[in-house]
Design goal:
407 residues, 35% helix, alpha+beta, 4 domains, 6-stranded antiparallel β-barrel, 23 strands, 33% strand
Length: 407
């Protein structure tokens, strides 16, 4: 009885376990769900390398090689101003005048000095002519004095004249020799005296020319068709010599200077040597042509100078212009939308429905037929063309990512 009571719980547990196993094995079987890899919808383009002309967006500063700064030739008062800043003027237009009364005294003094020296030269020439004639007479008088001394000596030997008479004749010869030497010195000094006066005359004529030029420059006249850049004075103001009056520049000679990286130096230099035109375009129809490469460079950069070909009337020296430079064509390039680029040097090629990254070099931009901006890239990786490139920007793009091309 006790044995039966002890086995009964074990029997119940065995029957329950057997029933659980039976129920577990007899339940309906459910298939496990299959996990599918997600496919990302993308757009692609097929590309093949070709020769394309990259476009480079740059900033260029406007410069005026023909820019003139008019200064005061001497201290004077501004009497009139006939223009204003920004005005367009024609060659020969009167722009500003200074008071002529500030220039007249100097001009009159210089003219008087020239006239005085010319008179002195004329007087010296007349004196030279007289001295030459007088020299002949002095020589004649010396010969007569010597003859008189000779007679006095002869008579003195005969005791017909006194010693005093001989001495007087001797003195007359000495005096005449001195007079002849003095006259000869005047004749001989004529070239030196003339040269001194002529040198002084040249200086005086130079001062006169300077005073005349200063008088002429008291009237500021436009030397060519130009634009007034600035006015530095006002009517009634007294200015000093060399003080700035106004600035003007010639619109037709305006040029733009752009700082470019060294990697563009060789292709641009080669194009200039081969007379291949390099153009750039800016806002409002501005057209530029590369004129020359600056002779001075800095580490890693150089300056390119562009001539304004069209629509440059509104340019102002010192302003910055955003322009698009068209570089010489390069081989083995292909164009992609900007969103195809990841970082600065990675794009993705689609191979068998999966992404493969490619390292590329961005060499510039290009506007397609719809005027949409594209990037021009060059790949150093071996490719089989035409190649399919992804142009959809995926935030999780990575090597091997499964993708599905939109129809």
């Amino acid at each position: 009885m006790r044995l039966r009571s002890a086995l009964l719980p074990l029997l119940i547990i065995a029957i329950a376990g057997t029933g659980f196993i039976y129920l577990k094995n007899s339940r309906p079987q459910q298939n496990r769900p299959e996990i599918k890899e997600k496919e990302w919808q993308i757009d692609v383009v097929a590309v093949s390398p070709t020769a394309l002309a990259p476009e480079l967006a740059i900033f260029a500063s406007v410069e005026a090689p023909q820019q003139l700064t008019a200064t005061a030739p001497a201290a004077a008062v501004v009497t009139a101003i006939y223009t204003h800043e920004g005005a367009k003027v024609r060659a020969g237009d009167l722009l500003l005048t200074l008071d002529e009364r500030d220039f007249n005294p100097r001009l009159a003094a210089a003219a008087a000095d020239v006239a005085d020296l010319k008179a002195q030269i004329s007087q010296l020439s007349t004196k030279q002519q007289f001295s030459r004639q007088a020299l002949i007479q002095e020589q004649t008088l010396l010969e007569l004095a010597r003859a008189a001394l000779s007679r006095a000596k002869s008579l003195q030997k005969q005791n017909l004249v006194s010693d005093q008479s001989q001495d007087e004749a001797q003195q007359a010869v000495v005096r005449q020799e001195l007079a002849l030497a003095q006259r000869q010195l005047e004749v001989d000094n004529y070239p030196a005296s003339l040269a001194q006066l002529q040198a002084r005359l040249q200086r005086a004529e130079s001062s006169l020319a300077e005073a005349t030029l200063a008088m002429e420059r008291s009237r500021i006249v436009a030397p060519y068709d130009a634009t007034i850049a600035s006015l530095a004075v006002a009517v009634g103001e007294r200015v000093q010599a060399q003080q700035q009056l106004l600035e003007l520049y010639q619109v037709t000679t305006l040029e733009l200077r752009a700082r470019l990286a060294d990697r563009y130096l060789q292709p641009l230099s080669n194009a200039l040597m081969r007379d291949i035109p390099i153009t750039a375009r800016g806002e409002n129809g501005l057209i530029l042509t590369l004129r020359q490469i600056s002779g001075k460079a800095e580490p890693g950069a150089f300056d390119a100078l562009f001539q304004v070909s069209a629509a440059g009337e509104s340019l102002k020296p010192g302003s910055l212009q955003a322009v698009t430079l068209t570089l010489p064509p390069r081989e083995h390039l292909f164009a992609l939308p900007p969103q195809a680029l990841y970082g600065s040097e990675t794009i993705y090629q689609v191979i068998d429905g999966r992404l493969q990254p490619l390292t590329v070099e961005v060499v510039g931009n290009l506007h397609n037929s719809d005027n949409n901006s594209q990037i021009l890239v060059q790949s150093s990786d071996p490719l089989t063309f035409p190649a399919t490139m992804m142009v959809t920007h995926l935030p999780n793009a990575s090597r091997g990512l499964k993708v599905k091309v939109n129809p």
